[in-house]
Amino acid sequence: MCIQTRRSQECWEASGEMRKLENDRKSTGLLGKKTNAVLAFGAGALIVGAPFVTPAFAGPLNSDSLVDPEWESAVRKHVEKRFFNLIDASETQKSQLDDIFKKMCESNRSTREQVKQGAVDVANMMADGSATDDQIRNKVADIRKLREKMQDTRLETALKVRAILTNEQRKVVSDRVVGFITGNPRRGLLRSMM
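The chain above was modelled as a monomer; its predicted structure follows.
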């Protein structure tokens, strides 16, 4: 029996335990035959069962809609928060603007679904050899009309928002838009100095 000292390593080696463990490792692999078998079985079960388990963790499928209302709401709230911080909106402005944005999202939802479905249809038509070029052009023209309809709704929303903002807030938004369009966020700052 060895006592824990500086020489305990030497004592352990001398007792032959080290040689015994080394021989066991060489004969059964690094982890042992049983452990290797369990790992192999587990890996095989994971590979075979993964396609069936993955949908269970995906959550409820929303196959009847191409637009997810929960995602839409989360994005709207995120954008609103950033916009409110940008313009330093008052509580009444936040409430009014939230109502406007919410109504706009709800009114455009069906149009966005139609645009997405149209894009899926165009992709399928491109892959389908029986679709003619004119059919594809007509489908793209339909999608373009839907997008123009959404742009008109966005313009009306922007005009409603403009009516709620103060002159200073309009200037902040204008500077941000100019910076975005030009690709230079400082341009709006420079414009305000002139």
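The two ends are 89 Å apart (CA to CA).
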